[in-house]
Amino acid sequence: MMLPEWERLRITRAEAEYASVAKDARVAFALWVVTGVFGGHRFYLGDTAQSAAMLFTLGGLGVWTLADVFFIRRRVRTVNARRRATIMARHGIVEPEPVNP
Fold it and tell me: Which residue spans traverse the membrane (predicted)?
């Protein structure tokens, strides 16, 4: 089924807006390597309160920083999914819920 032109433009505009705010896991990992104990990767992902806590505790004396390496990719996916849902809702585009097997 073909979508009307105005509908395709609305979807394209929403996708472009999402692409401009989506976070990249490679950047988050690079920030973790360089600024991990200061929470730079958390600032990048918008987790300001957790970033400040990492900053003032030096990443929980390194423990929190080491644990984060296992959770960065999942956190990036979560942040991006929320941003995408917000943008699509703002443009009136409802996406189906993912089916979990």
Answer: 27-45, 51-72
Q: Which domain holds residue 79?
A: 22-90
Distance CA 87, CA 12 (A): 12
Question: What's the structural domain count of the chain?
Answer: 1
Asked if the model's pLDDT at residue 40 lies above 60, the reply is yes
Q: Judge whether 95 lies within some domain.
A: no
Q: Write the CB contacts of 24 (distance below 8 Å, at least 6 apart in sequence).
A: 76
Question: Of 66-70, 74-78, 87-91, 93-97, which range is least confident?
Answer: 93-97
For residues 65 and 89, give the distance between their C-alpha atoms in angstroms, rounded to a whole number: 34
CA dihedral defined by 70, 73, 78, 79, rounded to 10 degrees?
Answer: 110
pTM value is: 0.83
| pLDDT tier for residue 98 given thresholds of 50, 70 and 90 | low
Distant-in-sequence, close-in-space partners of 74: CB < 8 Å, separation ≥ 6: none
